[in-house]
Design a protein that fits this description.
Order of helices and strands: HHHHHEHHHEHHH
Number of domains: 1
Number of strands: 2
Radius of gyration: 19 Å
Shape: globular
Strand order of the largest sheet: 1-2
Strand content: under 5%
Structural class: mainly alpha
Helix content: 55-70%
Length: 209
Amino acid sequence: MTTYLSLIAAWLLYFALHSLLASQRCKAAVARCCPAIARRYRLYYNLFASVTLLLPLAIVLRQPGPSLWAWQGAGQWLMNLLALAAILGFLASSRHYDMAAFLGLRGGSGGIGCADEPFTLSPFHRFVRHPWYFFGLVLIWTRDMPLAWFLTCLLITLYFIIGSRLEERKLIDEHGELYRRYRERVPALLPLPWKYLTLRDANELLREP
């Protein structure tokens, strides 16, 4: 029990730090006191997030706990194919992002004071508003499920739900009614067969004032 409480605490601490450092208030404070760091803020942020991720993952690997279920036979093949499709989705969708800026590898663009990007829709955004969150959920839930990993999946899923809503507040502030109309027509995290934008719909939405 102590191990699982430690795991939950480690994930909650990670999520709290991740959200705090991503907040505009924290970025503004860094910009005021440490301009040199602010210019490379996204790079340092990504490095910090990657290193601190090792703690909860180490707990999962060292103390996985009893197995709740493990995929077998055709089920295992299907889950691995879904995971592979999610990885390919990540790679394909990355072509529609400025990855150098996202990773903080280009000076200035990955910093705090960069300008807001125009509203655009990649092919994946026609079916789900947060494709990377969707691919992430596919990856984590298609694995075998020892108890520690099950708790991890639950916490990550909850964080994605909360994080997506907080992210959309910023998107509404940036893009206003345009993003509200988009949000009404496309689901957030899980694609729905009856709720998506055709290519024509997406182009018409982007042309709206």
